Amino acid sequence: MEYLLLGFFTGLSLILAIGAQNIFVIEQGLKKQYIFLVCIICSISDLILIFLGIFLFQYFGNFFNSTIELILNILLFIFLAHFIYGKISIQKNKINFNQEVKNISLTGIITKTLAFTYLNPHVYSDTVFFLGNFSKNLLIIDKYYFGLGASIASFLFFFTIAYLSKSLSKYLRSDKVWKQINLLIILFMSLLALFVLFEIIN
């Protein structure tokens, strides 16, 4: 259960931010266009990428030695430091949502959703590399729980921001709310960074 919760909060910290994909999902919720389809594509894609990262590191873990482990932990720490710095630097950003409703075909919305998901370089660094690398030393059963927790966070997040976008619009548009969320993410990721640093030192 602890690894399920760890995966959930780690996954939520990675996804709980205003990026291109999340803005797109919120906008579809505000427009009431293909909400379920957009959410399910984003959520299943995250699940696939999360377990892809976990299985890749599980497979290549058979070839790891202490030097490779150290290099991966250093890269993990650098990633976390960069991630935290990025969260700090976007504190001044303004949020704008496009609510203009335009006709779009089923094929068009599927293509657009897949593009926002798989053409986003952060999805590979955050989801595949970070979650796979972070869970590399867990027992195989704990990796499943960790991945499941992160996947649940994605499903919950996408469906919540899309279907509740109208009622949450007051908060979704608030720079103050997102700044407070960012501070929580920075705190959580800083704790993970300290944990990784401890692993490097020892």
TrEMBL record:
It is found in: Cell membrane. Keywords: Cell membrane, Membrane, Transmembrane, Transmembrane helix. This is Lysine transporter LysE. It comes from Candidatus Pelagibacter giovannonii. PANTHER family: ARGININE EXPORTER PROTEIN ARGO, ARGININE EXPORTER PROTEIN ARGO-RELATED. One of its GO terms (cellular component) is plasma membrane. It holds the Pfam family LysE. It is a multi-pass membrane protein. GO terms for molecular function: amino acid transmembrane transporter activity. Its main location: membrane. The chain crosses the membrane at residues 6-25, 34-57, 63-85, 144-165, 177-201.
